[in-house]
Amino acid sequence: MNEYTVFHTMAWPSAYAIYFFVIGISSALFFFSALSWFREDYRPLRENAFYASFVLLAVGGLLLIGDLSQPGRFLNILNPAYLNFQSPLAWGGLNLISFGLVAVLYFFMMRKGDEVNGKRLAIIGSLLALGLPIYTGFDLTVHQHRPVWNTPLMPVLFVGLSLVSGAAVASFLTKGSEAANSAMRRMMLWSGGAVGAMLISLLGTTAYGGVGAELTFMFLTSGTLGLIFIGLGIIAGTAVPIVLLLAPLGRQQVGMMTASVLILVGGMALRYSILYGGQILQTYY
Amino acid sequence: MTQELLMSSTETRGRPGVRRYAMVIDVRRCIGCMACQVACKAEYDVPLGVFRTWVPYRVTGKYPTVKKQFLPRLCNHCDDPPCVRACPVEATYKLEDGGFVLQHYDRCIGCKACMASCPYNARFMLPEHRTYTDITKVVDKCTFCYHRVIQGLVPACVQTCVGRSRIFGDINDPNSEVSQLVARHATQVLRPEQGTKPHVFYIGADRSLTDYGRAVYHKDEQADIERAAFNRNKHI
Q1: Domains of chain A
Q2: Fewest C-beta atoms under 10 Å: which of A68, A270, B46, B104?
């Protein structure tokens, strides 16, 4: 053997990708539930979307805590003496907890049918929900040496992914309402289109980047990860659903359901490949 | 003459009265005996499969003109450490006097943000079971042997280096050996483009080891096998 080096493992495993996926859907579902106070076509989603959002928030929180090597110390993130506000994780922890608290209050207002406080909490909760995909994007963006991650696009891309995946789940929760289905179809089309545009931009800047970015582009577009990123994420999970939704079939229930499933598969694939893509090269250094 | 900007409040470059410890590694003197790696393992009971310092090598050239190129690696104790910024609970911190980047083990939650943020792969997760200490399942790294340096000793790897390849001292002191070496020789730091201002300087390091990404084209199959064997949680 002509060389020797020690091996390095990836810092963030696939549990983080699942967390990004789950929390993105949770925040978008809350947003749709909140929109129902202001737009009649979203009304059938109010309760269902909120319950699904809350369950996913709990699942996401447990995933996040479970992935810590010291899960019992997750409360450290709430200790004002310890908090480091330079870290997006600190902001994320606070965002997650405040979103959870607002969601509980929102539940009571929703059950009571309190229009005034319901609307107030819907607005506050939506802003906090918006913070979740933004902070997860920043979690990646701040690592200046990681190709693909270190781009201002990441928080915006995560917001887009959150909306499109959330709309895909919400399309199963519309109780057959024509208006809500149509709203979800539009949401999937617009946010899916935005995600597609951002992915093209991301691929372009990565392909023409420095040595790290170029090699990461190679990993993201070839082999197993290429199959996941390009095959499942971009083609099957973004391009095909958009085409399907634009076609006459996409206006029917079966077409929309198919597009939703594809979007969910693609959303998970994109988060997974972006998370892993930014880490592979470093393991060889 | 223009001066280098101090981009972050944590940087102590040239600050009077503040020590800034650095290591110069003269690669031309390294014989690859791995004594530094062993001394470090012994000093800290570093578990199997992880390293605070390691000495990768590559064989370059074509027979009969071949050469083994070594590149001792460790935490760079950056002047502007990204790991300190990334830690949500300030478990990782930088000592202003000395510039040591250290770890509060009892505060670390194990989110691995510091591992993700380190451009040098200097950080690792301690395993669940250890023989002589209960410091487990938290992130660890080289400390520049802080406990030895405050007692007037040099780090264990420096002490043991037979070729005096590793030199340690205060780079803010213009009379120190490290200052003199950095002033007189052409030195390199790893990944300078990342803005971390590393405190490990190399003399005579070979591109085949310092270049980021080059290893991808010359994969070490053995390392991949070992990685898979050690990675029980399938984190690769």
Answers
A1: 14-284 (1.20.1630.10)
A2: B104
